[in-house]
């Protein structure tokens, strides 16, 4: 099987490693089949898409809507590389799944707008599939309504031209969309579980997602809700796109 490529943007080792481990667990693949590049520290050179089965992008504390002068050099470099890659992927309609930060990567292309209108706190949220989402080859493996874990400061307020709206929540209109036939972004985290929430809550306690003294309450909100369905998205992505 040709490997999948996982692109991370987390500079903190504990949540970065936990996220990669979660992707391996949810896909059912090993490190040989899911190669990792950490864009916050590594340079991603030119890619021949024919060498890969698909690409997965994780989440992290970068926001495309941050003022340019507030972005660290590694963020500016990583965002520029991801933009180039996204354009390459869209041109080829190549299998791509961007979780959380994938919304920022794809959502600013082709007339789309990503801004701060629809933030959501870290924790569980009920996600509703649209009619298109229920019929979609990837998202359609999920129930019409399900619980997922998330936490974000920015979101899509205007979909890119031609994008297909696949899912929403009560506080964020765009939770998932597709561009072309094989290029996806989700605002919720398909890989995230309670252990991951605990790791990320500790790592990002001072990143402005919540007041630091509320960290225990953030974890308890997540502990109170059973989240079982989102990992099916990653397993289905492999089922659809793994190739020899």
UniProtKB/TrEMBL annotation:
Signal peptide residue numbers: none
CDD domains membership: GATase1_1
Cellular component aspect of the GO annotation: cytosol
Domain Glutamine amidotransferase as annotated: residue spans: 45-193
Cross-referenced Gene3D superfamilies: 3.40.50.880
Source superkingdom: Bacteria
InterPro entries listed in its UniProt record: ChyE-like (IPR044992), Class_I_gatase-like (IPR029062), GATASE (IPR017926)
Keywords: Glutamine amidotransferase, Transferase
PANTHER family with a match to the protein in the record: GLUTAMINE AMIDOTRANSFERASE YLR126C-RELATED
Protein name as annotated: Glutamine amidotransferase
Species of provenance: Nocardioides anomalus
């Amino acid at each position: 099987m040709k490997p999948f490529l996982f692109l991370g943007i987390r500079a903190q080792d504990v949540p970065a490693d936990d996220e990669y481990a979660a992707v391996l667990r949810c896909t059912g693949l090993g490190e040989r089949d899911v190669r990792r590049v950490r864009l916050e520290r590594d340079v991603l050179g030119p890619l021949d898409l024919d060498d890969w089965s698909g690409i997965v992008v994780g989440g992290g504390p970068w926001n495309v809507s941050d003022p340019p002068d507030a972005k660290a050099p590694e963020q500016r470099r990583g965002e520029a590389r991801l933009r180039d890659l996204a354009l390459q992927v869209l041109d080829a309609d190549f299998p791509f799944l961007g979780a959380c930060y994938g919304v920022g990567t794809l959502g600013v292309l082709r007339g789309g707008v990503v801004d701060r209108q629809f933030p959501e706190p870290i924790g569980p949220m009920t996600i509703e599939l649209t009619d298109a989402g229920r019929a979609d080859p990837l998202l359609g493996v999920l129930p019409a309504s399900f619980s997922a874990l998330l936490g974000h400061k920015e979101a899509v307020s205007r979909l890119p031209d031609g994008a297909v709206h696949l899912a929403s929540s009560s506080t964020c209109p765009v939770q998932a969309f597709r561009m072309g036939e094989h290029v996806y972004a989700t605002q919720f985290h398909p890989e995230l579980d309670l252990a991951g929430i605990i790791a990320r809550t500790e790592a990002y306690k001072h990143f402005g997602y919540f007041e630091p003294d509320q960290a225990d309450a953030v974890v308890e909100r997540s502990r109170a809700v059973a989240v079982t369905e989102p990992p099916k998205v990653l397993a289905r992505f492999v089922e659809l796109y793994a190739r020899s």
